[in-house]
Amino acid sequence: MKAKRILALILVICMFTVGCSCNDSKESELNNLKDIMDSVDDGVSLWWDSSNANNENGDQSTSKAPTEEVTTEEPTTEEPTTEEPTTEEPTTQEPTTQETTTQEPTTEEPTTQKPVINDEGKTPYEAHGRLSVSGTKLVDKYGNPYQLKGASTHGISWFPQYVSYDTFKYLRDAFGVNVVRIAMYTAEYAGYCSGGNKEELKKLVKNGVDAATDLGLYVIVDWHILSDCNPHTNKSEAINFFREMSSLYKDYDNIIYEICNEPNGGTSWSDIKSYANEVIPVIRSNDPNAIIVVGTPTWSQDVDQASYDKITGYDNIMYALHYYAATHKQWLRDKAQTAINNGLALFVTEFSICDASGNGGLDINEANRWLEFLNNNGISFVGWNLSNKGESSAMFQTWTNKISGFDDSELSEWAKWLRDAIKK
Ligand code: IDC
């Protein structure tokens, strides 16, 4: 903090000198000085300040997304414009920004968080290499069944801070994840096809893929359709996006393409299949082997329908099964079982254990039944979501702005459940 004050002081003295020579009033220069010094003390990052104020003091609270009580069963498709983390202080005062001797560890992960599930000191990718699909199973480079277990970002337009090396490293070492999913909404507020900055979004995806790759993790690039219901709605954008991504990552063996998160609104399997049959060849022309996950009707639940009419002509195709344990129960496992019996390779690229709105109480009993089902069938799973939004599917508490090095009090109940599930 001292260094910052000194730098700020130098900066202001320069401004003051220039200001005087331009005959500006001394009073306004003095106000500038005060503003800058105040902002330094408040922990606000200035352009020359490469440190992350939020990160430095993990217990600060500056962003709190609104908590709305959602009663609808299925995910809401409207994104409030207030979604983006704000810079306002929350009303419930957490520990202040003052540095005190009782501060949490600031940079290093707590010593209790030793790396878990490391394949004899190797990263997941070093140990398992290129994955492929064999029958209904995902297998590693040795042909052994391999389960991916990980976490998904929230919409990257809204919570870009977690698309980071530090967050992914924390998840790998403290949770034991071997995969991360980068969720890029297409139609919601600031989505890729709804006014979001395409270049910025692609940059975020690339940062995420690079970070995951450096960490030896597998990474899913998710074209997160939701309120656009039918993947044909934004098909030409999807084709361009996947052409670019697969060309960029054609030599990466750890990348997985998820071409349509959750078709819904009555979109039929034959519609989805015809979309897949246009997008898959685009990816295949660059990358003949990457795993491609295809969404299924009714928010990626009707995997049984897909199993009666599989996509043919391509290897390494998997089908998305999504569930929220407090809403989707045995009846959905029955559909999944039918699909498996029919030879479909399933991938739970998104789930949580609250209800389908992404909020509400956790159903631990049902969560455990699901987990047993997934493990018995060797199905990979990815938990939703990496954010501190006020909803029970968020992994981080609303009052923490840390992006890594979380201690247990900063994790949601769901995050702790997921961590245990991955370690099992
Ligand atoms: C939810 C988010 C929530 C957001 C909403 C609409 O958790 O913060 O406001 O989307 O954008 C899904 C979707 C996923 C949903 C999630 C929970 O894939 O985007 O996220 N869900 O509703 N399918 C079933 C549940």
Indicate the CATH architecture of the largest domain: Alpha-Beta Barrel
Task: Specify the overall morphology.
Answer: globular
CATH superfamily of the largest domain: Glycosidases
Rg of Cα set: 23 Å
Q: In what order do the strands lie side by side in the largest sheet? A: 3-4-5-6-7-8-9-10
What is the helix fraction of residues, given as a range? 25-40%
What's the level 1 CATH class of the largest domain? Alpha Beta
Secondary-structure topology with pairs:
Layout lengths: L1 H20 L4 H16 L11 H4 L67 H5 L3 E3 L2 E3 L9 E5 L11 H11 L3 E7 L12 H17 L3 E7 L10 H14 L6 E4 L10 H18 L4 E4 L2 H4 L2 H5 L9 E8 L5 H12 L4 E7 L11 H13 L4 E6 L26 H11 L1
Parallel strand pairs: 3-4, 3-10, 4-5, 5-6, 6-7, 7-8, 8-9, 9-10
Antiparallel strand pairs: 1-2
Helix pairs in contact: 1-2, 7-8
This protein binds ligand IDC.
Ligand IDC binds next to strand 8 and strand 10.
Would you mind describing this structure in some detail?
With 424 residues, the protein is an alpha/beta fold. The chain has 2 domains: 1-113; 124-423, Alpha-Beta Barrel (TIM Barrel), CATH 3.20.20. Helix content is 35%, strand content 13%. The chain is built from 13 helices and 10 strands. It has helices at residues 2-21, 26-41, 53-56, 124-128, 165-175, 198-214, 235-248, 269-286, 297-300, 303-307, 330-341, 364-376, 413-423; strands spanning 132-134, 137-139, 149-153, 179-185, 218-224, 255-258, 291-294, 317-324, 346-352, 381-386. The chain has an 8-stranded parallel beta barrel with strand order 3-4-5-6-7-8-9-10, surrounded by 5 helices. A two-stranded antiparallel sheet has the order 1-2. Strand 5 (218-224), helix 7 (235-248) and strand 6 form a beta-alpha-beta unit.
